[in-house]
Write a structure and sequence with these properties.
Blueprint (H helix, E strand, L loop, with lengths): L1 E3 L4 E2 H9 L5 H7 L10 H19 L1
Antiparallel strand pairs: 1-2
Bound molecules: FE2/S2 (inorganic) cluster.
The site of FE2/S2 (inorganic) cluster has 10 residues, from loops.
C-alpha cells in the first residue's frame, strides 16, 4: 500500500525508515530519497510515527 502517491513511498518503506530512526516526516522523506510535494501523506506519516511511539512506550513498561 502506498503512503505517498507523489513519490511512490510504500507503507513498508515508511516503517523501515521509522525503525532506522526517523522521528519526523522530513526524515522519512530523506530516508526514502525524496522530498514532500503535495504533503497529503504527512498526516499518515505522523500517525505511523505516533503508533510506533506508542508501541515503544508499552514495550518499555
Ligand atoms: S502524497 Fe506524499 S507528497 Fe504528495
Amino acid at each position: 500500500m502506498y503512503v505517498c502517491n507523489c513519490n511512490g513511498i510504500r507503507e513498508r518503506e515508511v516503517r523501515a525508515a521509522i525503525e532506522a530512526g526517523a522521528s519526523r516526516p522530513a526524515q522519512i522523506f530523506r530516508a526514502c530519497g525524496s522530498q514532500p510535494q503535495c504533503a497529503r501523506c504527512v498526516c499518515d506519516m505522523r500517525q505511523m510515527l505516533d503508533e510506533s511511539q506508542e508501541v515503544l512506550k508499552y514495550a518499555a513498561e
